[in-house]
Amino acid sequence: MAIRKAEFVCSSERLDQCPRDGRAEIAFIGRSNVGKSSLINMLTRVNGLAKVSGMPGKTRLINHFLVNDTWYLVDLPGYGYAQASHKLRAGFEQMIRSYILGRDSLYCLFVLVDARHEALKQDLEFIQWVGENSVPLAIVFTKCDKLTARSLATQRTLYEQQLLEFWEDSPPLFMTSSTSGLGREELEAYIESFITINQ
Ligand SMILES: Nc1nc2c(ncn2[C@@H]2O[C@H](COP(=O)(O)OP(=O)(O)OP(=O)(O)O)[C@@H](O)[C@H]2O)c(=O)[nH]1
Ligand SMILES: [Mg+2]
Domain range for residue 97? Predict the structure, then answer.
């Protein structure tokens, strides 16, 4: 399944404002600035579809993009945006929690982590929480263009070791780069495996 068409549908502040047509959706989440919006643009091949910025905290709402007129890609705000006020952070967290726990049409949550950094406690705790709540998830390494193949392999092994501390099997892990397009086919094939079946 090639992604041949993608269009912005809406931005929602709360779960109850999200589309109600029951179409399957997959969502991207991760720390602020990890590259969620860039990955959506890379996957859809539409530059500027999701807003990208060097300043963390760019995406503040739940953004729905309709793909191939059949399913949604969802861009979520980043968690752990240190500069946001306490009140704003609490609001984001509530929005994200209620979306993840309450969105019946969510087929997979992709949790993005920066390939350059060692596993962060905040990410690992978040991944564990998602798993405990039985939400299907996969891990996506971003910005892989910034590392050599050798360091990438090391980072992957280290990450999987950490995941295996609380997972019986490590969730699927994808290597991506929004600048080089690395990982696009793999992600498309993976998404297709549950979207076409459940469509
Ligand atoms: N080299 C490189 N830079 C990237 C990649 N992905 C994202 N970036 C850069 O990282 C910065 C943040 O990208 P965004 O896509 O806006 O990140 P985000 O996770 O959506 O951020 P928030 O919406 O603030 O949570 C931008 O300056 C991007 O150009 C990548 O694969 N490689
Ligand atoms: Mg964003």
Answer: 6-198
Q: How many residues does the chain have?
A: 199
Tokens representing 168 are 């019986």
Query: Closest ligand 1 atom to the C-alpha of 30?
Result: 19
Identify whether 1 is part of a domain: no
d(CA 70, CA 29): 21
Give whole-number Cα distances, 114 to 54, 89, 103, in Å: 14, 21, 26
Task: Look up the CATH number of the domain holding residue 104.
Answer: 3.40.50.300
Q: Which residues pair with 173 in a beta bridge?
A: 139
Q: Who has greater pLDDT, 24 or 88?
A: 24
All residues with CB under 5 Å from ion ligand 2: 36-37, 58-59
Q: pTM for the full model?
A: 0.93
130 token code pair: 């998602």
The alpha carbons of the chain give a radius of gyration, in whole angstroms, of 16
Q: Is the CB of 155 under 6 A from ligand 1?
A: no
Distance CA 79, CA 56 (A): 10
